[in-house]
Amino acid sequence: MLRPLNADPTVEIERTETPSRRGFLGTLTKAALGIVAGAAYLTRGTAYAYQYGCCNLAKPSSNGYCAYNCWRLEGYYERSWTCLEGASTVYTCFECTTGSTCWQGSFYCSDYWVN
Fold it and tell me: Which domain holds residue 80?
């Protein structure tokens, strides 16, 4: 006959409940939120908070300074694009940035004008 090792009749074994579906879904939801938050942190970008017409700019308008003086700043380049608001209002938008496009790099100033 087999005897259990260290069988002590005074030791009580606590019985745990099997996990419920609600507990499992709660844990799964928390894990999913953690993954989404981590992905959002890793893919964060520049928030373009200044909008003039159809121009979404990184900095507030410099009232012409940026468009005419960006070339004087070492390492910065003028990046510009045009956009159409409504049926006939054309905007020219400028960013003075270290990036290779209008949407990248460190931004020094921004500007726009209506053509």
Answer: 50-114
Measured CA to CA, the distance from residue 97 to residue 59 in angstroms comes to 11
The mean per-residue pLDDT over the stretch 34-51 comes to 60
Instruction: Give the best-scoring range by mean pLDDT among 24-28, 29-33, 43-47, 84-88.
Output: 84-88
Q: Does residue 39 lie within any of the structural domains? A: no
* Residue 6 falls inside a structural domain: no
Domain annotation covers residue 60: yes
Six token digits for residue 76? 């910065």
C-beta of residue 110 within 8 angstroms of C-beta of residue 94: yes
User: Residue 72 phi/psi, 5° resolution?
Assistant: -80, -15
- Look-up: residue for tokens 């069988």? 7
